[in-house]
Amino acid sequence: MFERPDVGERAIVVHIDFSSHEETEDPDEFQELVASAGVESVGLVTGSRKQPSPRLFVGEGKLEEIRDAVAAHEADVVLFNHALSPSQERNIERELKCRVLDRTGVILDIFAQRARTHEGKLQVELAQLEHMSTRLVRGWTHLERQKGGIGLRGPGETQLETDRRLLRERIKSIHKRLEKVRRQRNQGRRARKRADIPTVSLVGYTNAGKSTLFNHITTSSVYAADQLFATLDPTLRRLELPDIGPVVLADTVGFIRHLPHKLVEAFRATLEETIEATLLLHIIDCHDSRRDENMEQVEEVLAEIGADEVPVLQVFNKIDLLDNFTPRIERNEDGLPVRVWLSAVTGEGIQGLFDAIVERLAEDVIHQFVLLGPRDGKLRALLHQAGSVLSEEHRDSGDTVLEVRLQYRDWLQLLSRAGSQESDIRLDAREA
């Protein structure tokens, strides 16, 4: 929609530290973003200012330095590790005579390349259009004229107004289609809730190893790579866990610091798998130097989408990159697993993760010795059929003692099917 040079493969990266800003972007992370976008970073321009310039974001001297770097490296695009206003972006483009993108533009470009499903492509297009709508004013200045010709004379509609209208109509259309996707997802979630199937959702900072772990657990082939935003489209797989039964595991898009709000909004249909989850697995790259900051960013996004109340199990991944570190489970004062250390690449600690998930999901599992009489034959048969009987002992009196282990809700369902009441069931005094 913009008459500007196509984005090339060679980029000058600009990173400025502002003393007035408490939180600064990470230049190394931005270099990874640039590489993930398939662009070669041929030069890095850094500097420091008290605050951004309203017109050009950087000072005249720094702009000259960027211009020299573009000429020296024959760069096609300048990428800023910051959020630029539409006017700043346009002013810098006019001065440098080349394409300029800010941090949000780079992230949107990566998302556009990675989206695979129809839903993912719709979400990316929505985010792009909403980002573009703020830039139309300076994108179409050369077309600020009215339509003419026979039958079209008069006030008419400027080209800019036409494009705004077309954008609004397309955005409205995508919202409708995504709403349909959201309804379909809700139907699937309601069906799982009716069947009492828990959902475990993987969340975490981008490139923490979510998809690698997902593939290891489910033996599926979700795209996984050592790059930012390798996964955009949610993937669901069904697992069978002891004591729990069927569980749905969901792999989701990774988070990043200062993730553009429009992207969070666009991917809300995807992120609802996180909001509605029974348990979140927060995957953390334990080898990353900014591990704690990344964890805070994920928690901020979870709070933004309303998932901060969902129970969380932290999974510290990539222990194979640490020296002499063995997998382990850490527990809180109540003995509940809160942190698992593992390697998704080597498989070390995966069994510990399964055990921890089962413990967190099976907080209502009962383990008891039940005393059944001859009249309780149907309940005995149902318990055997459900695979919940650990041991069985027959007494001379004709009674049977069953050692049973199952979820409390399943216990109540089996009692109901057998036509029995919980108050009628005798428990053996021994410890389970």
From TrEMBL:
<dbReference type="GO" id="GO:0043022">
    <property type="term" value="F:ribosome binding"/>
</dbReference>
<dbReference type="InterPro" id="IPR035647">
    <property type="entry name" value="EFG_III/V"/>
</dbReference>
<dbReference type="Pfam" id="PF01926">
    <property type="entry name" value="MMR_HSR1"/>
</dbReference>
<dbReference type="GO" id="GO:0005525">
    <property type="term" value="F:GTP binding"/>
</dbReference>
<dbReference type="InterPro" id="IPR045498">
    <property type="entry name" value="HflX_C"/>
</dbReference>
<feature type="domain" description="Hflx-type G">
    <location>
        <begin position="198"/>
        <end position="365"/>
    </location>
</feature>
<dbReference type="GO" id="GO:0046872">
    <property type="term" value="F:metal ion binding"/>
</dbReference>
<dbReference type="InterPro" id="IPR042108">
    <property type="entry name" value="GTPase_HflX_N_sf"/>
</dbReference>
<feature type="binding site">
    <location>
        <begin position="251"/>
        <end position="254"/>
    </location>
    <ligand>
        <name>GTP</name>
    </ligand>
</feature>
<protein>
    <recommendedName>
        <fullName>GTPase HflX</fullName>
    </recommendedName>
</protein>
<comment type="function">
    <text>GTPase that associates with the 50S ribosomal subunit and may have a role during protein synthesis or ribosome biogenesis.</text>
</comment>
<keyword id="KW-0479">Metal-binding</keyword>
<dbReference type="Pfam" id="PF19275">
    <property type="entry name" value="HflX_C"/>
</dbReference>
<dbReference type="InterPro" id="IPR025121">
    <property type="entry name" value="GTPase_HflX_N"/>
</dbReference>
<dbReference type="GO" id="GO:0097216">
    <property type="term" value="F:guanosine tetraphosphate binding"/>
</dbReference>
<dbReference type="InterPro" id="IPR030394">
    <property type="entry name" value="G_HFLX_dom"/>
</dbReference>
<dbReference type="InterPro" id="IPR032305">
    <property type="entry name" value="GTP-bd_M"/>
</dbReference>
<keyword id="KW-0547">Nucleotide-binding</keyword>
<comment type="similarity">
    <text>Belongs to the TRAFAC class OBG-HflX-like GTPase superfamily. HflX GTPase family.</text>
</comment>
<dbReference type="InterPro" id="IPR027417">
    <property type="entry name" value="P-loop_NTPase"/>
</dbReference>
<feature type="binding site">
    <location>
        <position position="211"/>
    </location>
    <ligand>
        <name>Mg(2+)</name>
    </ligand>
</feature>
<feature type="binding site">
    <location>
        <begin position="229"/>
        <end position="233"/>
    </location>
    <ligand>
        <name>GTP</name>
    </ligand>
</feature>
<keyword id="KW-0460">Magnesium</keyword>
<dbReference type="GO" id="GO:0003924">
    <property type="term" value="F:GTPase activity"/>
</dbReference>
<feature type="binding site">
    <location>
        <position position="231"/>
    </location>
    <ligand>
        <name>Mg(2+)</name>
    </ligand>
</feature>
<dbReference type="Pfam" id="PF13167">
    <property type="entry name" value="GTP-bdg_N"/>
</dbReference>
<feature type="binding site">
    <location>
        <begin position="317"/>
        <end position="320"/>
    </location>
    <ligand>
        <name>GTP</name>
    </ligand>
</feature>
<dbReference type="InterPro" id="IPR006073">
    <property type="entry name" value="GTP-bd"/>
</dbReference>
<dbReference type="InterPro" id="IPR016496">
    <property type="entry name" value="GTPase_HflX"/>
</dbReference>
<feature type="binding site">
    <location>
        <begin position="204"/>
        <end position="211"/>
    </location>
    <ligand>
        <name>GTP</name>
    </ligand>
</feature>
<dbReference type="GO" id="GO:0005737">
    <property type="term" value="C:cytoplasm"/>
</dbReference>
<dbReference type="Pfam" id="PF16360">
    <property type="entry name" value="GTP-bdg_M"/>
</dbReference>
<keyword id="KW-0342">GTP-binding</keyword>
<keyword id="KW-0963">Cytoplasm</keyword>
<comment type="subunit">
    <text>Monomer. Associates with the 50S ribosomal subunit.</text>
</comment>
